[in-house]
Write a structure and sequence with these properties.
Number of helices: 16
Low-confidence stretches: 1-29, 38-80
Number of strands: 10
Oligomer: single chain
Mean pLDDT: 76
Order of helices and strands: HEEEEEEHHHHHHHHHHEHHEEHHHE
Largest sheet: 8 strands, mixed
Radius of gyration: 34 Å
Amino acid sequence: MPPLPMKLKQSSASASSTNQSLTTTATSAQEARLLVRETLRISATLASFAPSQSQALPLDAQPPKQHLPQLLHHDQDFVGSSFRLICCEEIDGRRWNYVAEPDSSSSSSATTFKKGSFRALSLHSPQPPLDGLMSFVRSYVVPEGFPDSVIPSYVPYMTWRALKHFFGGAMGVFTTQTLLNSVGVSRNTSASGAVAINWILKDGAGRVGKMLFARQGKKFDYDLKQLRFAGDLLMELGAGIELATAAVPHLFLPLACAANVAKNVGAVTSTSTRTPIYKAFAKGENIGDVTAKGECVGNIADLLGTGLSILISKRNPSLITTFALLSCGYVLSSYQEVKSVVLHTLNRARFGVAVDAFLKTGRVPSLLEGNLKENVFNFPWVKDGPIVLGQRFKDAFQEPSVYLAIEPFFEKEKYVVTYNPSKGKVYALFKDQAKSDDILKAAYHAQVLLHFMQLSYNSQHLYQKDKKDEFLNFEPTAKDLEACIVESCNMVSTSYGIFKSKAKEQGWMMSEAHLNPGRARLIK
């Protein structure tokens, strides 16, 4: 019996050891399951975030690699990362997160960020090359917003129109060759064919130029005066290049192609802006009649000018002198032509004239006054004016702290307005809920802020000449900028409704479409 206790003791020790082993095993299994679960979670997170990593678009430099896998958004911060989310942006379904790294060493009570840490992280996969090519082609051949921007019959009409021009273009080669033979250019088949091909290439280059410029299509609806005048200038440029072929006949083909490109671009602007201009003149449903009579007047004047030139050419005048005089008359007439058009819509130029007059005098200019003050030399494709609508977040803000400082002032608005001192421009950014009236209000607010910024600049440079040019380099302090924004917010809240009612009384039509805002939107 003595061994029994020993055996029991051994069994007890063995059981204790077994229990401890089982407990340890269970703990290890639980830890293993937790480790596997955590590994799977991290792997899934990294897999879902991989496109954002590969498409990170730094504003200054590539973000540190050790932080990128941890940029997981959660309650305005990134879990496990020192980066903080500033805002989100969307353009045509593509999104970006703007992040910055707070500066923990700063003693300031306000949130500050490390210099150079402001970045844009793309949240979308790269666009396939084929999709990018199709998007590029669509920008040339279909109206913006297609198919929602046109009626269903547009597609069959354009299909048959394209086929008509296809057959017409093919026939043009043979008709041109026949005409050249008829006037005795050459009876030799190969020679006449070469001349005809050169002539067709010249016309083809003009058509290519016309097609490329057609991408400006939407601008014909709101900046038609500027484009119409620019088109007339290009027509004269093309005429000058054509005359230059007499001095260098061996360069006929390249010069003729360049001239035809310029003249065809001018023709696009003329035909595209013709209907809106005639529509402004028609009081009733008589646009067709007004257009027909207007074209008839133009053709009569063209025939009279042709007859006069035939009479003058018989006296063998100086080609350069004659061209200079006729060009001056053409450009002057074109300028007065577009200045005489009175449009009811407020594009950016006329909107700026109306708001500026309202802020200075308390009254909105009449239709005639506003159109006369519009600058037709401000060509849309050259550069943006002092106010930019709907631009990217990274273009409007240099530092995230500026956005965080002014964002509370626009909490109840569907937009944010700021001034970028490095570019000397006022920017209006739109939130994703912004409607037509919100865009109009943002444009008005941007004009008001620009007005206050100019007043602030003038007060600091009382005795300086050329203030208008130097304003582009104006860099206000953060305190001055915030004060101007607060003042502009107060002004807009009390005066925007008054401006709208007075503009309506004068006959102005306000629509955000004529302001041509950008497509970038801030999202939550």
